[in-house]
Amino acid sequence: MNIITIEHVAKVYEVGAEEVHALRDVSLKIDKNEYVAIMGPSGSGKSTLMNILGCLDTPTRGLYNFKGHNVSEMNDNELAKIRNKEIGFVFQTFNLLPRSDALHNVELPLIYAGVPASERKERAILALENVGLADRMHHKPNELSGGQRQRVAVARALVTRPSIILADEPTGNLDTKTGEDIMSLFNDIYQQGNTIILVTHEEYIAEHAERIIRIRDGLIERDENVIKRVIPKKKEEVA
Amino acid sequence: MKNYLFELKEGLLISLRAIRANKIRSVLTTLGIVIGVTSVVLMSTAIKGIDNVFQKGVSSLGSDNLYIDKWEWFNNDIPWWELRNRRNLTLEDYRRYSESAKLPIAAAPTVWSIQKIKHKNTTLEAIFITGTTNDYIRTTNLTFDEGRFFNEIESRGGRNVVVLGNTVAKNLFPHRHALSEDIKIKGQKFKVVGVLSEQGSWVMGSFNPDNQVFIPIQNVFKYLQSQSFRSITINVRAPNTQMIEPVKEEAIGIMRRVRGLKYSEANDFSINQQEGLLNNINQTIGVIQIAGLFITSLALFVGAIGIMNIMFVSVKERTKEIGIRKAIGAKKRTILSQFITEAVIICLLGGLVGFLLALILSMIVNQFLPTSVQVDAVILAVIISLITGVVSGFAPAYTASKLDPVEALRYE
Fold first, then answer.
1. Do B221 and B362 share a structural domain?
2. Fewest 10 Å CB contacts: which of A1, A156, B135, B297?
3. H-helix or E-strand containing A172?
4. What is the pLDDT of residues B333-359, one digit of tens each?
């Protein structure tokens, strides 16, 4: 079943008197439990595409259907609800609340979802355990390393059990080794049956995905499945 | 509803966290509100105190009393030279009035004089001496610490007896009872037959019975001043407040007849009542109140601007945070209420501290004006700080809630 269907989506920004066509005409479908990388050089429109996929922004033209909901016509509050329940974000700069500890950061989406405090705490701790940070839950972001911060962000993204994980250059601020750790974490998450959309401009990061969509000048240049050099674990094993 | 309460609770926790994170800034911002609320509460308390004092003072005049006099006490409608040219009211006028008047409980003539009084080596300067008859006591609510008012025999016979106001008695006889002692007024010996209990308040000045002495009216004319120069005042007491108007109408009729006025002639006397004074006082206090509250609310206004300012800075500073919150699902309303709650908490804290400060300061005020912080001042403080919080928090909070999550996330 398709989680995401976008058809002939375009996004036009008005910068002063000029119109900037960030996306011209993009159509794609993403299935449940796919691992998709969106690639493209800067200015290609991949960030715009990610914002639209993440329901942070709405397209100027075209149709965006998320699990049967017409996102292109949603208002701000409905978008907020979709982001809260269906999408887990992982950002390049981690985007944790600096003054809150790891536990509170992970709890935050559940707060907005209206989950009662006790259940919230339990789920947040579980999510932190899942990324191997149960012993760091009362640390503030500045007391954690970059890799640990990103893992807190991953826990936050997973805690609402969203339909998709949207990761925007998740290794961009990390050294290669830590980046690899995070990528293998994503791999585990994917193996657990989650749907992941990864935005990156690094070829070796994109190769972790099963499918790569290349964007250039606001159009899809190529959309192809990755031929793995290493045979991944079979999905059935984990599902 | 449940959902809303939930959000409110979370909003509270988030706000407290933010306030704690910026302690010094929060304290300084709160200070503005503290000063504002303190001055508003204190001012309203002080005004209440002034009002109390005046009302109490005026009530010692008695709300059921009328005063027939040559002079108009409170209105300035009639030019003073006309008042001056009126014939004096005499004891004869009083006699004929009290014979004809059916409605009042009592009526008594009074005349005053200011004299030195002495007991042994103690002299009191400029004491207000009221000359009257035994009927006077029934036109007032005066009560006694010791003794009684002079009786009809003493009054008619013009005996040298005196009733002392409370303050006068205390000053003249600091350490012992005044009853049955002799005092001297203009060289004449008077025997103390009664001491009043404490009555009025300082606003009434020498009109306060506490600062007066009372002697039979003949004695004033005999020893202190000539009857022909002085106009008397007739104190009239109506049975109750509803009867004031009929008593007044009756008095006007009788007095016109007594004074032999023709149909075309205007009254050559005035009928004064407490109401006139009350109106004057209420007007004055009303002006003080408006001016006072206006000035103090300026202080509060400055405090509110401080909060609004700091909230704008806070929103700007936390743009990224707002972006993160929005990205993971905070609705506009959630962000709006988060920032308003923050402003309201700062204001309520300020209101609380300001109120406590006002409570302490009002104890100092209490030394000069008998007053206390009223329950309505508490409510006032809470309401003011709530409104200030919502008003000063709204604009910044609205700005925050309208931020575009994509833009906000990009903000560094």
1. no
2. A1
3. none
4. 889 988 888 888 888 888 889 888 988
Q: Tell me the nearest-neighbour CA distance from A119 into chain B, angstroms.
A: 14
Task: Determine, for residues B328 and A51 on separate chains, whether the beta-carbon distance falls below 8 Å.
Answer: no
Closest CA–CA distance from residue B397 to any residue of chain A (Å): 16
Is the residue at B361 inside a domain? yes
Torsion-angle region of residue A8: left (phi > 0), alpha (psi -120 to 50) or beta?
left
Examine the pLDDT at B60 and tell me if it is beyond 70: no
Q: Do B10 and A91 touch (CB under 8 A)?
A: no
Nearest-5° angle of CA B25, CA B27, CA B32? 100
Query: Within a domain: residue B273?
Result: no
In a domain, B82, yes or no: no
Beta strands in B70-187 (DSSP E): 106-119, 122-132, 144-147, 161-164, 182-185
Distance in angstroms (rounded) separating the CA atoms of residues B113 and B126: 9
Which pair of structure tokens corresponds to residue A61? 């033209």
pLDDT at residue B203 is higher than 70: no
Same domain as B225, residue B125: yes
Contacts of A80 in chain B (CB under 8 A): 326, 329-332
B325–A56 C-beta distance less than 8 A: no
Tell me the pTM: 0.69
In terms of residue numbers, what domain contains B258?
87-268
Q: Is the separation of the CB atoms in A81 and A69 below 8 Å?
A: no
Q: A182 or B206, which is more confident?
A: A182
Q: What is the pLDDT of residues B126-167, one digit of tens each?
A: 899 999 999 998 888 888 988 999 999 999 988 999 999 988
Would you say residue B285 lies in a domain? yes
> Do A83 and B327 lie within an 8 Å CB cutoff?
yes
- Regarding whether B401 and B301 lie in a shared domain, the answer is yes
ipTM of the complex: 0.90
Over residues A35-69, the pLDDT tens digits come to 999 999 888 888 899 999 999 999 999 999 999 99
| Closest residue in chain A to residue B9, using alpha carbons only | A111
Query: Which of A51, A56, A104, A142 best probes binding to B when mutated, by most B CB atoms within 10 angstroms?
Result: A56
Number of domains in chain B: 2
